[in-house]
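Objective 1b. Sequence-to-structure analysis of DUF4386 family protein.
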Amino acid sequence: MSTVSDRTDVIATAGTHRTADTAPGSPAFVRIAAGLALIAFPLLFTAGIATSPPQASDAARDYVASLGADPWLTALSAGLLHYSWVAFALGVLAVIGLVRGPKGRVVVPVAAILTSFSAIQLSGLLMSDWFTGAAARSMPLDAATALTEGVWGDPWISTWQLTGRFVGFVGIPLVIAALARAGVVSWWLLPASVIGFAGFFVPLPGGLGILLGMFVSTAPMIVVGVRLLQRASARVRREELAAA
């Protein structure tokens, strides 16, 4: 994955007494925090997928049984996935500050806000793993499965889940495409954010196809995180101040 050169245009100004700390745009510490959050996102997310409790099949009954079988593993996986989306939701909003030209001034904020909202939805949904696991251990498996299916079948929860899934299937490619249009990252990152979903259809043992696919799909956000860290440097801040 590669990035294109930064399009920050330096326009010399004379007589200014402002420093890089008062330059327009996101403060340096915000860019650093957001950059680190976006770099952590694919790592936490992949770790959460890797630690998902194994299940015999995709059937709801086997899913419920898997969450109840190992409370510690269920909590670890759900926790990693939860904080991966928290990191993404916080970090992705800072990409708005990466836009320097007219291209992307509308689509980047729209993409960032939509995907941040969806990530918040996903992080909240993961609490259900703890409840499902507890139900599987507290009542007969058939009853726990019926309870789980009843909750997930509720229209409110279904809508919540649908809006959350937007970030995984559409949101990340949308953010990458918007940033590529703005000249922040390369268009070559866009295929990676899409083709990773092929992992769902690659029959590798132990769900390795899904694991690798999900990392490939989310890894472009590492490049975006690095771009935010680069924009936090004192040199870039001075250039932004001069261009303001």
